[in-house]
Each structure stands twice: as structure tokens, then as C-alpha cells.
Amino acid sequence: MGKRRKLLNQKEKYFSRTKPKSFAVWCLLFVFISSTVYLIARNVSSGGILAQLEEDEAMLQKKKDVLSHQLFEKSSLIKLQAKAEGLGYTKPQDTMYIQSDDTVAAVP
Amino acid sequence: MPNRIRFVSLVLFVGFLLLIGRLFYWQILKGKELSNQAQSQYKFSKLVEAPRGNILASDGTWLAARGEAYLVYASLPDIGDINTVADTLSPYFVEFDNGSVKKELIFQEASRLKELLLKDDLVWIALKHKVEPSVKNIIEDLEIGGIGFEYEEARAYPEASSAAHLLGFVGKNEEGENQGYFGLEGYYDLVLSGKPGFLSRDADARGVPILLEDYKKTVAQNGVDLWTYVDKSVQINIEKKLEKGIERYGAKAGTVIVMDPKTGGIMGAVSYPSYDPEKYFDYGDEYFINPAVSLSFEPGSIFKVLVMSSALDADVVEPDTKCDICAGPVKVDKYVIETWNQRYRPDSDVTDVIVNSDNVGMVFVGRKIGKEKLWEYLNNFGIGKETGIDLQGEMSPNFREKDEWSEVDLATASFGQGIAVTPIQMLRAVATVANDGIILKPKVVEKIASEDWVEDIQRSDGERVISEKTAKEVTAMMVEAARNGEAKWTHVKGFNVAGKTGTAQIPIAGHYDEEKTIASFIGFAPAEDPKFIMLVTLKEPESSPWASETAAPLWYDIAKDLFLYFGIQPEN
């Protein structure tokens, strides 16, 4: 009986010393695990955001290519000349040079 | 222990062993195979294409640009009735010619497609490359089973076949990759191509990237853009005029080059016959060679400008030095040199020799300077050397060493026969006179540009070949030649043009053809402060062999527009 009591007392002392420490360890473990889970979840969602951004980039690039192509078509001088001729514009056949003191139409 | 407990323990133990065995099977024996399968699902890698750079004119508008095109392919197991598919697609793959399509072409195309679709041993086959987006959209709307599309980068030319020889074209190399050939596309292929990138990462079943795992990215380096000196208005103008000139004078071929003599910048260059760089595959190889830089000719009398410059700079003659052999033909070895019109002027000075394009007078000048000094001057003018212009395919004809020259070689070289040059060599040499005696390297590209930087192509300061005084003297002679020489009837009054005609016989099989000529006119304006220098050459004009009646009027026809464009005013 005495020995058992002694053992129990020793156990009580042990647990009373170690209880606060183990509690701290468990708290730290909990914080570590939850932050790991949180970061992993965040990274996974970042992957989704990245995929969306890449899709947006591809779409914008395609729009840019389409607009560039339109600009490129419109900047064609040959097509502009052909259009001008179609509208009745012709190149002047003759050029007359005038002296600087010759009278020309001017704002009064 | 009671028997039931032993039995349960045994069952559990056997189950445990089975589990271990199964785990061993899947993780050890099948582990690698499963790992590879999993990797093929979540590993994602692709080559990131580098878009090809654009080629821009001097005003920043496009000469050649990236275009959108598609490869139409067939996934053969998913194709339905082959005949129906081929007949449906064939009209869309055939070129339209002025709105009408030949039935035979459609029939041929349908046969070609049927042949491709009947290949049993393939799962995937390319049906047509470089299909336009509008055609691709139409085919897509037809919802033909087994037909798919893959983006392809195409090259587009907004000015169609304009500047074809300057630009070159983009074809495929042996590995099936895009590669530039000839012209700027060939010369600057490396910088235009850029460098592809690479992306490797893990992704889930939906393709969403898993950022915690492997992620490797090499950013693609886009091809740079080339800003050229080419002026679109000048380029298109000279093309139209050359085409009309070829027709009017019945010439077999022709070349026109316009250059800024102060910078060496090529503002326009055209050669006929030409080709369409977008449809280069429809043309034979002979069309791709740029005559302006790759083919040589005997220049004839336009070469006299260089010989006279050399003699004046060497102080062996003055502009008023009298020619004492100009009274008649001159005998050189066993040959007799005559003037082009059998007219002889005993009182000619060397200025008259240029004005009248007197071959005998040039022999006099050549003898005065001597073959050694003449050879050195011509060498300094760049004769016999590549100009270094930034176009793929430049060549230089052979220029014999001075100790290999005979008396006849000296005589004939004095009036531009027995010596060969390319048009760009000739233009560059005479541009030296226009540039106060300093020779420059001709160039097409002014600067290269990326999205966030621009860099000028390094320009050399040039070397002095003749003195400024000599350049002015020769310019005055050329002005006189343009006003009062054999092409005076074409001269545009009031404009200070320095020019020279040249009619050269064509050597064929060791002798000169009696009738065939290369007619040329080279000139710059305004003479005192040139805005442009231009060379016009016509090969074998049928209407007249003489440059004064073919190349010269064509030169002035183009020049009238250039005077207006560059704001060159006539003198009072």
C-alpha cells in the first residue's frame, strides 16, 4: 500500500510538472499544422488564379493580334491608293512651280 | 488462450500479410509504372513560341508583320465519309483568282485531300498549312467531325509584292522551323526569330497549376523589329514606274535603287522580274536572287564618273585639261577605240569628255592616271569588294589585281567596259561624289527595336576617297552632262541634277553583242546638297539600245515625283 501510494504520488508530481509543457507543445503543433494547411490551400487557390490570369493573357494577346492585324491592313499604302483611285482621286499630271512673290489665294 | 481469440488473431494476421503483400505489389513492383502514369497526368510542359519580329518602313508602318494562320488537320479515326469531307473542304483550300475559281483546281484539291485521308497507318495528318483565320472560321462552323485547327504563325505583307527583293521571305528549314531566306529576312533571321522559351510545371486534372511542385520557366525572347530606311511612298512609286518603263522600252529586266547619299540609307529598291514573298513557293529560285546586290553588269559610261574623280583627285588632270588624242579614234594594242557616235572633238577638255561621254577622251584620262593609281582609287571606291549592305546574298564580281592589268584593260576600264560591278557597288561609289568624297556603307535597316528598347544600327563615319574639291568638280561635270549631254532632251529644266548616262554592250561568249545593251542612268539631286541618289538600269531595251532614250527618261520620270516628295525646288 505504501509503495503504491508512493508511485501514485510520483506520477502526480511528474504529470503536474509536465502538463504545462505538453500543452504548449500541442498548441505549437496545432498552430504549425493549421498554418501548413492554410498555406497549402492558399497555394492551390493561387494556382487557380494563375491559370485564370494565363487565360486572360492569352485572350488579350489574341485581341491585340486581331487589332494589330486590322491596323496593319489599314496602313497599307497600296490599298489606300487603290481605294483613292476607286473614289475618283487621280495623281496630278503636271506640276507648276510659282515664284514666292506670285499672288495666290490667301487669308486676308 | 481460448480458440476463438486464436482464430481471430490468425485471421487478422493473414489479412495483415495480404495487405503487406498487396502494398508491396503496388508500391514496389508496380511503383515505377504508376509513378510514370501519374507524372504524365500532372506533368505539363510546352515550348513557348517566340513571335517573329516585324519589318517596318521609315514611318513605322509595316512592310512585313506577324500574321495569324492555321494548320487544318484531320484526326483520322474520327473522320466520317472521306469523300464528303474532301469535297466539302476542297473549295476552301483553293486560291481565288479575281473572284473566279477553276473547277479543275477544286477537283485536284479534292483528290489530294482524299489521298491524304486514305492513309490507314496514320492517326493524325496535316491537310493544309497557312489557312487564313476567316477561312478557318467558316470551316469550323461546318462542324466536320475529325477536323481540327492548330495556330501557325504566318508572315503577312500589307504592300503585297512590294519590296520583295529587299524583304526576302520566310520559309521552312530542314527541321520544319521558320527560317528567313534572302533580303532582310535572311540577313537578320537570328534577331527576327528571337528565342523560344520553355514552361514545365505540375498541374491538376483540370490543368490548374500546382505551384508547390516543380515549376520551371524560361521566358521566350521575342524577335526584334527592324526599322528600315525604306520610304513606302518612294518604294511603291519606283515599282510602278519601273514596271511601266520595262513595258514601254521593251526591256527584259531592270533595277532602280534610291539611296540617301548622306547616310547610305536605302529609301527604295526594286528589280524586275520580282515575286510575291507571301506566295514564294509559286516561284522558281531564279526570282529570289536580288539583281541589285547579287548580279553584276559592265557599267559602261556611268563608270567614267569614278575614273574622272580618280584622275582629278590624283592631280593628273584639271577640269580644263585638254585631251590631245581626241581628234580621232585611238589605237590600243590591236584594238581601236572609238566614240559612241563617231564624232570627235579635237578641242575637248576633260569636262567635255564627260559631257559628250567620249571614250577616246577617257582613254586619255586613264593613261594619265595609270593603271596602278586607277586600281587603287577604284579599290577605295569599293569596286571588287562587297559593300556590306545588310541583305542576304550580296556578291562581288572579280576585280583583277593591278599587276594583271594590260594596256587594253586600262583603256576599256576607263569607259566602263571589261570591268563588272553590281548595281549597289556602282551606286555607293557615285554616292561618294555626292557625299563630298566620303564613302559610306549602304544599309537598309536604321535601327532595331523591342517592346521596351530601341537601338540604332552602328553607323561607320565613312572614309575619305577623294577630296571635297574633287567631289565638287566632278559634280559640276555631271551637272553639265545632265544639262548638255546626250540625255539633255530628258532633262527637267530648272532642277540642278548631276547625272550620267551609260550604255554598255553585253559580253556574250567572249565577245560583245552587237545589239544588246544595258542602259543606265545614275544621278543625284539637288547637286549642291543631294537629297537622293538614284540608279536606273534596263537590260536589253528593245525600243532603243541607248540609255539617253530609255534609262535617262525613266530616271527623270521617277525624279519628278521625288522632287515634289522631298521638297526640292527648281532654281530660279
Would you kindly provide a written description of the structure presented here, covering whatever features stand out?
The complex is a heterodimer of chains A (108) and B (572). Chain A is an all-alpha fold. Chain A contains two helices and no strands. Chain A starts with a helix and ends in a 22-residue tail after the last helix. The mean pLDDT of chain A is 81. In chain B, the strands form six sheets. In chain B, strands 2, 3, 4, 5, 10, 16 and 17 form a seven-stranded mixed beta sheet that branches. In chain B, strands 12-11-21-20-19 form a five-stranded antiparallel beta sheet, sandwiched between helices. Chain B has 18 helices and 21 strands. Chain B is of the alpha+beta class and 572 residues long. Helix content of chain B is 34%, strand content 22%. Chain B has helices at residues 3-29, 31-42, 82-89, 103-117, 133-142, 164-167, 183-187, 189-193, 232-249, 291-294, 304-313, 350-355, 359-369, 371-380, 407-414, 423-434, 468-484, 551-565; strands at residues 43-48, 55-56, 62-75, 124-131, 147-156, 169-172, 178-181, 197-202, 215-218, 225-228, 253-259, 266-272, 330-332, 335-337, 438-439, 445-449, 454-456, 463-464, 498-508, 511-525, 532-539. The radius of gyration of chain B is 34 Å and the shape is elongated. The longest helix of chain B is centred in the first third of the chain and has 27 residues, at 3-29. In chain B, a hairpin with a 5-residue loop joins strand 2 (55-56) and strand 3. The interface between A and B is medium-sized, with 23 and 28 residues.
Key terms for this structure?
heterodimer; A: 108 residues; mainly alpha; B: 572 residues; alpha+beta; 7-stranded mixed beta sheet; 5-stranded antiparallel beta sheet; 18 helices
